[in-house]
Please model this.
Amino acid sequence: MQCYTELTPPTAVTHSLCLPFINAQSNNLVVARASLLQIFTTKSVSAELDKAQNAQLQSFRSAEHYDSRINDDEGLEASFLGGDSLLVRSDRSNYTKLVLIAEFPLSGTITGLARIKSKTTASGGEALLLALKDAKLSMVEWDPEKNSINTTSIHYYEQEDLQGAPWAAPLSHYVNFLAADPGSRCAALKFGSRSLAIVQFKTAEEDIDMDDWDEELDGPKPVKELSTTLANGTSSNEETPYSTSFVLRLPNLDPSLIHPVHLAFLHEYREPTFGILSSTTSPSLVLGRKDQLTYMVFTLDLQQKASTTILSVTGLPQDLFRVIALPAPVGGALLVGTNELIHIDQSGKSHGVGVNQFAKQTTSFSLIDQAELELKLEGCEIEVMSAENGEFLMVLRDGRLAVITFRVDGRIVSGLSVRLIASEVGGSIIPTGVATLSKLNKTCIFAGSEGADSLVVGWTRKQGQSGKRKARLQDPSLDDIDMDDEDMEGLEDEDDLYGEDYVPTKQSANSANTSSGKTGELVFRVHDRLVSIAAIRDFAIGQTTSSKESQANQFGVASDLGFVCACGEGNAGSIAVINREIQPKVIGHFEFPEARGFWTMAAQKPIPKALQGDKAATAIGGEYETSAQHDRYMIVPKVDLDGYETSDVYALTGAGFEALTGTEFEPAAGLTIEAGTMGNYMRIIQVLKTAVHCYDGDFGLTQILPMLDEETGAEPRVDSASIADPFLLLVRDDGSVFIAKIFKNLELEELEKEDSVLTSTKWATGCLYEDRSGIFAGVNSDKGAKTDENILMFLLSKAGALHVYALPDLSKPVYVAEGLPFVPPLLSANYAARRGTAKEIIKEILVADLGDMTSSYPYLIARHDNDDVTIYQPFRIPSTTAQELSTTLQFQKLPNPVLADIPEPPEDDDDDEVRRPTPMRRCDNIGGYKTVFLPGDSPSFILRSSKTLPKVLGLQGGGVRGMSPFHTEGCERGFIYADSKGIARVSQIPIRNTTYADIGMSLKKIPLNTDIHTITHHPPSGIYVVGCDTREPFELPKEDDYHKEWQHEKDLVFKPTVGHGSIKLINPSTWTVIDTIELDPCEIVMCIETINLEVSESTNERKHLITVGTAVSRGEDLPIRGRVLVYDIVTVIPEPGKPETNKKLKLVANEDIPRGAVTALSEIGTQGLMLVAQGQKCMVRGLKEDGTLLPVAFMDMNCYVTTVRELKGTGLCLMADAVKGVWFTGYTEEPYRMVLFGKSSTKLEILTVDFLPDGDELFIVACDSDGGIHILQFDPDHPKSLQGHLLLHRTTFSAGAHPPTRSMLLPRTLPADSEYLTQHNNNSTAATTATNGSDPDSPPAPPSLILFSSPTGALSCLAALSEPQYRRLSFLTGQVMSSLPHYAGLNPKDYRAPVSSGAVGRFPPAVDAGMGRSIVDGALLARWNELGAGRRAEIAGRVGFAGVDEVRDTLREVLGAAGLGYL
Model:
């Protein structure tokens, strides 16, 4: 059977909500990405700082004007004191950034979010209600003790008895949505055709009259009844935050609610009250009728389960589709239609505005006319900007911004108006429509999108002169600066009061100056973005390497191929280039075979003797700031060919380095274990195996600390070392530790080990960490009161206990955790495992900050002996009493499915050298990331951006012996490393348009700002071809003689739009468009393929040509036509200064198809012909020399062919129909003909189909519109298949929230000792011997897998398993499923089960021959590392593996992108 694995998480944002979730004071944004729930908090960063950091990262990053003087001290001083003050030009506003707190993959598709105020949550924050497809509700809250979410209630409404009539459509066919009462008394889920589930919540206001009870006046207060028992025996006391739920049929509330459209709970009512929009006539009957809709408001009495109608407004326009409840002071509800907006207040009074000329034609309802706006409101989203001012932000489907303003007199709304925001002030910063809007704070909104990056958009108001402070008026250059109301408040006193670290914090929300708020003009800008590759339209695999010159530099560190996809919608259309690993940008490379490590440092030059006193040294050291300082020296430990160990020092130049001579540095002293600076960059420390050498800034030797135990006379060797100024920690080979501190006189002295545990315990490894976040700070101590008070020492004993000391106090540890080798999901001081529980061998620990410029956070990283890493996130349990660290500090294990590679056996010449394990490196700034590098056989970076969890990303190329950050003028924020082949490279992480941690792979996104549908790669030229379209107004055909009435419609102003296609060439060396071909009007590109066609009948020459299928659609009155265009890519003379423009498209053939569009293309057979799906036929055509396409064979099809595929060179074809299932056909060349072999059920809606060869078997993988992946097979010997006329159905697996829409069969890379390969080699040998085959040497079919992409931006793959693998992994998924928590109470098994309703449920996909087998769910297997060591060992033995290592080997072969080694 097969295994389905998800390669990347979904990136499309479908829902969002802002609420205090983590605790009562927090401001959290909850984002739903189909099946992934993410919780963010917001952080304010000054805009000036944000720009400075971006510019500091890379000079080319931003084209904006940037003042270079910010980064160097003299310049900064000059700019403060100089005549043109820097502050005048500075941007004083704040940017709101998102920071991820936690994320949870769900086994369900989120269809709605709602916030519920609850007094019973453990955290004090609000609870979150999730609606899940098709009709499930889960209520979750934050659990501060587990630092995770906790499910408090689950509701299920998919039972048979809750469904409607027997003839009703299945639940998934209805729009089901969630609405919650603003007062948190109840929530409603509308599901099915007309059912409403009401969930009640307990609120503190239930008996409202008792709050003001006065015992003196009213007598003794009545005792509240403690509990009442309900009918089913459960108590109604405060054990649960919710009461029982019930289902209402909407026609029972009011007989006219037969076809509900939308509903929302309204603000400011004492009882839960909702407004509902509905109709008595079915939506299909409205043609020719007008104003059929009714808006009604009902109040619910939850105790009596009864309702009262408050008001009803009839005769509303037919095109209304949404009800939005408006907060006070506007109140009431806003009804949104495609052509108008109508507001209905609490008394039923209505005001409306028509936003285009169709509003008059479609309704007789009285509306103010704003037809000149010419807006289309389909797919728009509306959110509050300022309720006091009556301002609401509307984002249209094309991304334009508009503001809806309500005129409020007292409590009465007297009208509303709409105005578009001009693009000069940010009206077009959102490229395409959004799926959700959530207000983050007073001047900031989150816009989540399914077809583009999701944005945090902020606004400021341009103030008039009168609004500014008198103090600032003297400077006329200030007039054009955008100011927040809040920034006005503290403007005079901010200037000189604070140091340069000062970041202005947000004022509280009520400090807004609302009176002046309405006057200024709004200016919008983007504050932050969540990168998305969602709505993947098509993808191609091809070369992504650039020009020839850089190829020499990139040799060995660039992947063979890249995954290039066309993604995004509308103007957000872009190309995403994805690689599995980080491809470093090499600045220089050279042979350096003897290097075994690198340490770069920025040391300070020694102070002249005249200045030397104690005070001067500290004063100068204090002023010296190295953050912008380039590295000056590099120490390199070396091992020469004879195994002789030395160390050398080099001086760094622009992009390289040169040997430094004439200093007191001793190369022959031995191999450097660790090096760095101490004493505020005044001393260079070099740790050798036998001693510690201290040098001044010019490498003058100042001190030697030998490793000598004075009592025993032993000389222990140093194994590992860690430096955190002013402390030094050494762990030695006899298990002892040495802790030293550098004092004011810059002398390094050993500290007394007061705690007897420090001397008696044998230590394995340790590290020092400077705690800047205060997470490890004791309760009593101030956060980092002194600079050296926040240094912590983490030590791991050989027995596996983790001890934490707060230096310089060595009398007792502040925290001890015994359980680290068991790698439990939650590590605490009191964690205890059963005796005999299996342990992991941890060879190294490191505590380091991971993050980017916006936010960083400490993590504990444990490295195992097999090079896997476990990442722990420390968190504190909030406690009211001041408690010790041991009770409040816990470590939570983060998911990390990445498994390290198997080390390659060393080559013969290295055998005599003992391989020292290279320790992990903490890097403070590489390309803007605070990261940790893991050297060794599978070199990786652990990267985290502020919007992601830490991810382990491999570095492209071989093993790495040593690495160090490298920050010089020629290589800013880069790194230097030596690989196992002895080549050293100075390189950078590419950061322009490139992100890493967002999808756990290297992702480069190139915007094209147009809608892209298809993409293909042309291997001979290395060029990519994309099919795009733009929307244009539709003109009625002039030449039509039959429709005389069309002449009257030529004066239409507000015309419908149609696509106008174009074909673009993209050169991957610069990723720019180098050639464009516009198609005819109304013609769009349906498919583009690179096909190896025969171009000459005499010489049989073949050529890779670009074949394009198009459709010409000119309205529903004229038939659809199509064209097949064949292009060659030819070399031309490039434009001056643009060497990449040396290729153009040349037309080879142009064939008109009179009936039907060309929807799919494929190569077929062995003679260089192509298969064309044209309308209801599939034809095989050959290219003739006169440029025509000659048809040679055909097959009649059904409705609309979505995909055609051929198993390369065999003539076996698959054709998928959009409504009629899959056809399996064969094609023969002598004579030319097509034969139908077998069909699936004719009730399947197939989006894509592919072959999956598995050894001697051939499977057909078909993906339907519900997300089902069907495995079909052709077997004429099976009795049920009617001699093969019907395909056999082996199994179905649901892809859930990520239905595959595109697929591609790709070769699979497997390790040589793979179990799958050995199994198939054995099978094929047995088969050849059995049949006495004529060619016993014929190799078995190469292994392959299918890569899927989905509209949510998730990539996944399906790979075949051998029989033993399948059996053990099936058992393993069951065991993992029962051992892990499932968020929101969802069942992964049910989530992956095939859809039971709909066409697929009623009609099986083909003749059932499944034998109870199913596809293995790789998403569950990927969570294997979340289990503790003991549980893993127990499960591995139970399901038939030899041990945990064998599970690890199998998972590494099956999971992740391991099978795509060439990407």
Notes: DSSP finds 21 helices and 89 strands in the chain. The CA atoms of residues 785 and 1063 lie 63 Å apart.
